[in-house]
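Quick one: structure tokens for this chain, please?
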Amino acid sequence: MIPDEPVTEKDIEAAEMLRSEGEFAAALDLTQKMLSHVQDDDARMRLLFNLVSCSASLDRSDLIEAAMRELEKLPKPEFSRVLANLNRAWAETSLGRPLNALNILDMNLATSLFEADDMRIHKYQLCLFKGEALLHLRRAAEALEWLDRAHGLYPTIESTKSIEEGKIFGWVEPSIQIKRANCLLGLDRYEDSFHAAQEVMKFDDPELATSAMQYMAESRVLQSRVTEALEIYAELKKRLPCRLIDEDRMARVITNCMNYLEKQQTPGRPS
């Protein structure tokens, strides 16, 4: 992008993509450059949301406060505030501060803004983020309640009403299902966990799909369906390396499974 040229949708998406890939510093730098000359209020709002998210992930409270002040100057500041807070809450959980995230999300819920029909897609994300924060606090039953609430808002792609909603569904729904698989496994609901993980495989997210296969395998291990688990692990190993998979831990589980089968197949000694 040439400095002072009009900021385009493609430019904003490039910054948002950097953020989604975890390149927070690069995304922040690009976002700040665009903010220096963007003219359109809607584009400015979107860039400020991205700045809040990147700044929160980088633990830059000074930049967050400055961005929130700028959002207050735009039309519908109460709307801007709660959406920016969604990004802050997500970052707080990612930084290992899920209680902070819950406080931010509960403040958002207290506004009642998310009850409006045109806020449904944002409530979808809020429910995911609240479920994720609760999961980090090992409150699996509560987390599952919020994740199920999120899924109920958009159970299928056909539930979405626009291309933009469809894009959000495309990343939120697999995130919901992988976290549901985690909760259900912790609640000893192994078959339900297996099926939640299976749902993730329907989406175009190779990393989450690999993680989902691990949940599927672990569900089968805990059901003593060890042969099926080993078959899944064999396919999973073809997808490695993956940053979401602890290969050493997986290797230990596979070894335990093989030892279990060997003992099952070894004939008993005569008395």
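DSSP finds 13 helices and no strands in the chain.
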